Amino acid sequence: MLAVLAAGSAFTSVSAFAQDYPTQPITIVVPFSAGGPTDTVTRLVAAAMSEDLGQQVVVQNVGGAGGTLGAGQVAAANPDGYTLLLHHIGMSTAPALYASLPFDPMKDFEPIGLVTEVPMTIVARKDFQPETLEDLIAYVKENGENVTYANAGIGAASQLCGLLFMDALDVKMTEVPYQGTGPAMTDLLGGQIDMMCDQTTNTTSQIKAGEIKAYAVTTPERIAVLPDVPTLAEGGLENFNLAIWHGLYAPAGTDKAIIERLTKSLQTALADENVGNSFAELGTYPVPADQATPEALAQKLEGQIGLWGEVIKAAGVSAQ
């Protein structure tokens, strides 16, 4: 009887806690360095959610181990709604890349909703020899490992894009890993490396300013913010289609009422005109409300784990 009463009391206190939520600042962990594309997306969403929730939403960068360090930190956090994770496609690639993970993507998180799907761009230092996409393809095929290709490390979106690009051309370039695409972009701007593939959220401003060369976007159609940049399909790589999706998560066990409140806040943030305009300037868009839901994110994650597991296995890539 005492156990039943205790359980009932605990349920009442949790429910009351959920009704009052939030009563203090919320932290969204980005499992990558500051200045990268996921960080940019998160800060825009966090600002809009802060306004809706009436509490400050703070962004904390916890980079390292291909995003698994930050994700593991959130998986182990108190499931009280005050520590969240905004992660990209790496949530679905980690199980295939790492023999041992500090978390299970499907079991250790409560999905809140999808956020955005970001196209990627094939870019290079501004003085790189090839002028067109066709020139680039021919140059890479001819020079192979003499071409340096930056990425943000094993499992990063930039590395996955590079793997698909090299596989499509049946060629191997020299990969140069960085601790995030922010520092990789710095070296690209400085001419220390030849190429990289990165999300439009991290390349659009530099492309428009003429600071780097843009050869292609990785989506089936050209994008409005970069109308003069062709698709890879226009260069003959017809089956190349890659957009980097982002999702918001809470630790497993977070009260359902808190998840519902966070989902509603995410939907409100994504419907905000300033967020939409900022995303558009970066070459992306907020997902519609019916995709900013726990159900849509869970379905996306499960499907992508299966898809990328096959791709990574075929490529023979491992983080260990």
UniProtKB/TrEMBL annotation:
Signal peptide start-end: 1-18
Keywords: Signal
InterPro entries in the record: BUG, Bug_dom1
Gene3D superfamilies reported for this sequence: Bordetella uptake gene, domain 1, Periplasmic binding protein-like II
Family: Belongs to the UPF0065 (bug) family.
Name of the protein in its database record: Tripartite tricarboxylate transporter substrate binding protein BugD
One Pfam short name: TctC
Residues that span the membrane, as ranges: none
